[in-house]
């Protein structure tokens, strides 16, 4: 197998992993919204859990980017992302 084919397989593997994560995150968002609607306390708890999760995620990305000298977030345009 050529190096180009191997790299393409790795890109496809990454795409599959991100797709799986996307499905899990959508289910987690749906659960979070349901919980937040139940009580004020749940709103605070859910916000704290998301804050912890996102903090850990971005901290890990920053750490790995620093160690590898490959900035994972470089080239990602926050304005190109469709937030709405």
Please describe the biggest sheet, giving its number of strands, its sense, and whether it closes into a barrel: none
Described by the principal axes of the CA atoms, the overall outline is elongated
**Residues in helices, as a percent range:** over 70%
Mean pLDDT: 94
Q: Please provide the count of β strands.
A: 0
Tally of discrete structural domains: 2
Q: Report the structural category.
A: mainly alpha
Rg, rounded, reads 17 Å
The tally of helices reads 2
Give the CA-CA distance, first to last residue: 42 Å
Low-confidence spans: pLDDT under 50, at least 5 residues?
none
Element pattern in H and E:
HH
Strand content: under 5%
Description:
The protein has two domains: 1-36; 40-84, no CATH class. It contains two helices and no strands. The protein has helices at residues 3-36, 40-68. The mean pLDDT is 94.
Task: Please outline what is shown here.
This protein has 84 residues and is an all-alpha fold. It is 75% helix and 0% strand.
Features:
75% helix, 2 helices, 2 domains, 0% strand, single chain, 84 residues, mainly alpha, elongated
How is the secondary structure organized here?
Layout (H helix, E strand, L loop, with lengths): L2 H34 L3 H29 L16
């Amino acid at each position: 197998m050529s190096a180009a084919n191997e790299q393409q397989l790795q890109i496809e593997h990454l795409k599959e992993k991100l797709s799986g994560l996307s499905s899990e995150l959508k289910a987690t968002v749906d659960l979070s919204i349901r919980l937040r609607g139940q009580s004020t306390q749940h709103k605070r708890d859910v916000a704290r859990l998301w804050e912890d999760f996102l903090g850990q995620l971005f901290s890990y990305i920053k750490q790995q980017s620093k160690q590898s000298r490959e900035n994972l977030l470089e080239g990602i345009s926050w304005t190109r992302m469709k937030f709405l």
